[in-house]
Amino acid sequence: MAVTESRPEAAAAGEHGISPQRHPIVQWLTTTDHKKIGIMYLVNSYVFFTVAGLLAVFIRVELAEPGTQFFGEQRYNELFTMHGTTMIFLFIIPILAGFGNYIVPLQIGALDMAFPRVNALSFWMLPLAGIVLFSSYLLGGPADAGWTQYTPLSEGIGAQGNSIGTDLWVVALLLVGTSSILGAVNFITTIFNMRAPGMTMFRMPLFTWTMLVTSLLVLLATPVFTAALAMLFIDRNLGGSFFNPAKGGIAILWQNVFWFYSHPAVYVMVLPGMGIISDVLPVFSRKPLFGYKAFVFATVGIGALGFSVWAHHMFVTGQVLLPFFSIMTFLIAVPTGVKFFNWIATLVRGKLSFPPAMLFAIGFLTMFLIGGIDGVFLASPPVDFALTETYWVVAHIHYVLFGGSVFAVYAGFYYWFPKFTGRKLNDGLGKLHFWLQFIGFNLTFFPMHILGLLGMPRRVQDYADLPNWVGINQLQTAGALIIALSTAPFLANVVMTMRRKDRDPENPWDGNTLEWYTSSPPPAHNFDSLPEIHSERPLFDLQHADELTVHADATTTGAR
Amino acid sequence: MRRARTIGAALVAVVLLSGCSMRMYEPVTEQGKDISSLYNVLLVAATIVFVLVEGAIVFAVFRYRRRDDMLPPQFHGNNLLEVAWTVVPFLIVTGLFVLTWGALNRVDARADNPRVVLNVVGFQWQWQFTYQDEKVQVEEGEPAEDLTVKGTIAKPPEIYLPVNQTIQVNTEARDVIHSFYIPEFLFKRDAFPGHVNTFDLTITKEGVYRGQCTEYCGLAHQAMRFTVHAVPMSEYRAWIAESKRRAASGCPEDTSPGQIAADKVAFDKPCLTAEAGRPFTLKFDNKEAVPHNVSIFEGDDENSQVALQGEIITGPRVIDYQVPALQPGRHFYRCDVHPQAMTGTLVAR
Amino acid sequence: MAVADAALRDSPEHHKPGGISSSLLGMVLFIASEVMFFGGLFGAYFTIRSAATQWPPEGTPHLDTVYALGLTAVLVSSSVTMQLGVWAIRRNEQRRLVLLLAVTLVLGVTFLAGQANEYRTLIDEGMTLSSGVFGSTFFTLTGFHGAHVAGGAAFILIVLLRARSGQFTARYHDTVEMASYYWHFVDVVWLGLVSTIYLLR
Fold this sequence. Notes:
The structure holds 3 protein chains of 3 kinds.
Chain A: H1 24-30, H2 34-63, H3 73-108, H4 116-135, H5 163-193, H6 206-237, H7 251-268, H8 271-285, H9 292-305, H10 322-347, H11 356-379, H12 381-387, H13 391-421, H14 427-445, H15 447-454, H16 467-499, H17 538-543, H18 545-550
Helix pairs in contact in A: 2-3, 2-4, 2-16, 3-5, 3-13, 4-5, 5-6, 6-7, 6-8, 6-9, 8-11, 8-13, 9-10, 10-11, 11-13, 11-14, 13-14, 13-15, 14-16, 15-16
Chain B: H1 2-21, H2 30-63, H3 79-107, E1 116-123, E2 126-136, E3 145-150, E4 158-162, E5 166-173, E6 178-182, E7 187-191, E8 197-202, E9 207-213, E10 225-231, H4 233-248, E11 259-262, E12 271-274, E13 280-286, E14 291-292, E15 295-297, E16 306-309, E17 313-314, E18 317-323, E19 329-334, E20 343-348
Parallel strand pairs in B: 1-5, 4-10, 11-13, 12-20
Antiparallel strand pairs in B: 1-2, 2-3, 5-8, 6-7, 6-9, 9-10, 13-18, 14-17, 15-16, 15-19, 19-20
Helix pairs in contact in B: 1-2, 2-3
Chain C: H1 2-10, H2 22-51, H3 65-90, H4 94-124, H5 133-164, H6 174-200
Helix pairs in contact in C: 2-5, 2-6, 3-4, 3-6, 4-5, 5-6
């Protein structure tokens, strides 16, 4: 049962038969309150973000010059394997679930998630998975066949590196997968069954919608990855031959099962981020999200289409039906485009202000656009034949995952920090953080398009000593160091702000959605009362009812 | 407003400048021409979309800055716009797909009678190239073999191919997945264990082209390089003839008989010469801290009996192997620890 | 803690009129994820089968289809008894529920024993996880299914014990419904397995 700090009567609760205030550490370890669990998700994920980021700095430092300087081949292979694995499974997927955990029940007017104890279990599996994964450093070496672990390399066929590291990788990801699936069951049930009166599906905030679609993707795709991991484990340790051609297995089977999950997974990694942006932009434009229903349909469309494109990661294997996967991949650009146009239309004729949350949201728009565009090149198999497995792909994935998801995560942090703590983060430090990160990010990843065109392959720690290549790599390393530097003002900001004794207003941004109706931070039971809900902006309706009668809606065919 | 315009101009300049460096290599194959043209179409489309959309965002950010506290008009949406910006992109991507399909059919087309058939085998961590039907009489009484060029990490293979001829390439792998990639050809295709990939290449421009494995395959992935010399037909035939002669003549590469070294998971010689019928000493110099040995077989592949199974040593260390008398002819040798990457032929005369 | 959760679940939000209760919805969603898990394994099976020149490969021990159909009869019967139990508690017949749960459990355990027996026979004939691609797919698919049957049986045991202490009524028996959904799912997967591995070949 959740114990809270904002109920003074709890201390005297003993005489009422309610358990007395427990030690804070015990509270946090045993909590089933979605808000505390959400915070733990955020903190745990951010810790792994910095760890994986450090691995990235090591990678870039090694790549500054051709030849081997600091990390030999084996160490380097471990670096990029652990960087990718940690970023995807221990940072971006859980941190978005963390925002979902804290915010979704508040946005729909519920008092907690549907299954609070399962929620706690879902969280605690994550630090455990992290420990399992990183224990490999102490047990002979971590996994080293890339986060994609293609067979037969990952089966230990041929001259191979770290055996136990790969098995620990499998176990860690089974834990993460289970955590995700249980979380998805929780989110879907909560969203379907626990909405406040008046909160119809088409009045839910976009962030909640994206959490719903994301959870459906997690529910249906992750178990396929579980099957793949089980088969890999059986091949590696129990003499199985699923993926071993020498024993009748099929090497490419792994890629098919793996990407069947991992492609929908990239939408898991970005849709909630798009939900954050869709909540943030209207607030700082002071007008509704343009085309709310279109957004919902586009999100659902992306989710559904996302299941049909997986083999575009396999165009050069010579074993996939190229035209089908090409057209489906091209088509996914359409709902994504719809979202972009609607976001821009939200800004147009608005009254924009730019606190850090909005800066990061605009950063998301400008950067994710590039990632989306360079992905379209890869949708075309002939062009893919030239560009895949080169740095062009590294550019693409980082523009969508960093330029997209990470910028969205920071937008969410700056936007909801006052909700979590009652205090706004400092604007000046936030702007410094944004500009350092924006510059460092583009310096690191834009030149990778050119490197890819020049033919530099991925996953190499030594590269041809050609003049362009060295210069570009050095530029990229400088950029990576700037990104690392940019986290300093952010962390300093958090520490400084948490130390402040004073509080900021409870709805500092004039937010539209229900989470801003209650106090910041909310009480244990979330809401003392609920307003009437008539639209997707219940709070806006409440605060600006009189102004709305002055400004009639300018278009008659608005989606409401 | 003026600020927006200067920023807009700067953006256009940046885009144009980077557009110059965002070109692919000049195509040097028939297939490359199709790929490059398609890429250029995509680049133009991408640039237009980028300028328009990014421009719209930047424009909005400056134009609609908040200047007062009044609420703006609360537009909720516009169904006509939604239809428009769904249908138009749909038509654009469909068009791009149609172009893609055409190019794909041309790039993946296969001729019935290729002039050269090149069988490429990848293994950890080098390549082997076999010219199908270019027969070499390696040993008396034995069937002629296809000419094979094999590389080592220390000595990556250099192969010759004729320009303006259809070359059929078949790729396969012996252990894990590798990928056959020549950046200037704008082309790559995976090499799989248990599956053969086939494609055609027609090189249109003479030159020397770098190749590299581009599917992560373990420790020495980045060392799996090779070079292709694209030459006129006459020069190609001359090289084939010369290679056949060298393959059949024993081992002119062995300038210091009686010794062999290992470094970077490779022998320093692809073949050895020795006198037949007399035992001899083979000095083995392992230069690296990786275990290696030399095992010599009676016949010309590993399925024959072992004549010498040398002690496995970890370097840097030198050891003398006492090799028993060998029959005249070709004897396969290899490192037992790295049986795919470290092989060679000892010619006993 | 449990009181608050029960309060949450019995609150109006959890029993929306015309909606499905949260516990049942949660179980349905969980089952959906399990369907996808088995889907991945079946997908692997079909891929490997379609690439093989001969299926089952040469040297594979003969699979006893009649025996498998016998096991099928056992499992299907247990689904019938489980469903009868659900109908019983919907009519508030607590004693009948206990009886039917017990029969279901016995049938389930019988299935598991039968499966173990078949495993022993096949292993004696040389087919194991490591004997090749057929052994890998066969034991992985049936093994994970068996594990799910075992889990389901454990769930039914718990439900049985709770039923015996009178915890279920016509109004409150969601857990029994949940167990029945899961058990039927396990049965359906078995039908898929039998059709694929034994009948279709």
